[in-house]
Amino acid sequence: MPHVDIFREPVYRTFRSSECSWAAFYMKLVNVFRYFLPILIIFVTDGLWRKTNTFREVPDISLTGDFIVYAYGHDRSIVSSSFAVLNSAASSDQLSTSQITHHFSNPTDFGEEEDNGFDDDVQILNLNLQFQMSTQNLSIDTLIYAFVLKFRLDYHSVIDMELLLTDTLKLPPSTSTIQTTARLSVDQSIPFHNSKQTFQIIDRSRQDVEHFQIQSVLRRVTQSPITLEMKR
Predict the structure, then answer these.
(1) Is the pTM of this model over 0.90?
(2) Where do the TM regions start and end (predicted)?
(3) Which residue range forms the structural domain that includes residue 91?
(4) DSSP tag of 5
(5) How far is 210 from 196, CA to CA, in rounded Å?
(6) pLDDT reported for residue 202
(7) Does residue 71 surpass a pLDDT of 70?
(8) CA separation, residue 27 to residues 22, 33, 38 (Å)
(9) Sheet containing 60-72: order of strands
(10) Are residues 131 and 93 in the same domain?
(11) With 129 labelled, which of 37, 164, 207, 229 sits at a CA distance of 20 to 30 A?
């Protein structure tokens, strides 16, 4: 008896749907979740190439040249600053002229090598800051100053912070020159919540005098996630 194939069914069939069909839309949606969603998660979470363990980065710290200095006497006070809003609000007998100069130096240039507790590859710099202010024949007993510095990290994170070097000094009578030597350290009390963060203590676009008052500035310094500490 001869063998005759009456019906033959293939093991599988390949169907190609049109571009506007629901099947094609479903396959494209699956491909989006398969390929593009992981890439999107990588960029939203700052990338898998970012470091997740403990790391050390030397920040870039520079002095902007902005400052606010208040000097208090027995019956009145004088002020000197680099902000026009604060200077315009001061009276003629309260506003004082001043001059500020600064430079960074290497401690080894002056034979000041010491054990600072850091590795040998960490560079320690001295900030030499000189400030001259006219006292206007005022017997000063209290001096409050705030010098603005810029703090930047750009390796693991992009952080732009404004730091203020502040201190309050009680002066004996007939004081004409003050020399303060201290070690500056950065204290971070609040962790960064993202890799890009900017914090500004003094908003230069403000026109209200209260924003530039020394007490208001010092209050905002305590709210900053990063502050400078002076260890005399």
Answers:
(1) no
(2) 32-49
(3) 60-113+124-231
(4) -
(5) 29
(6) 93
(7) yes
(8) 9, 10, 17
(9) 77-81, 60-72, 142-153, 158-170, 196-199
(10) yes
(11) 207
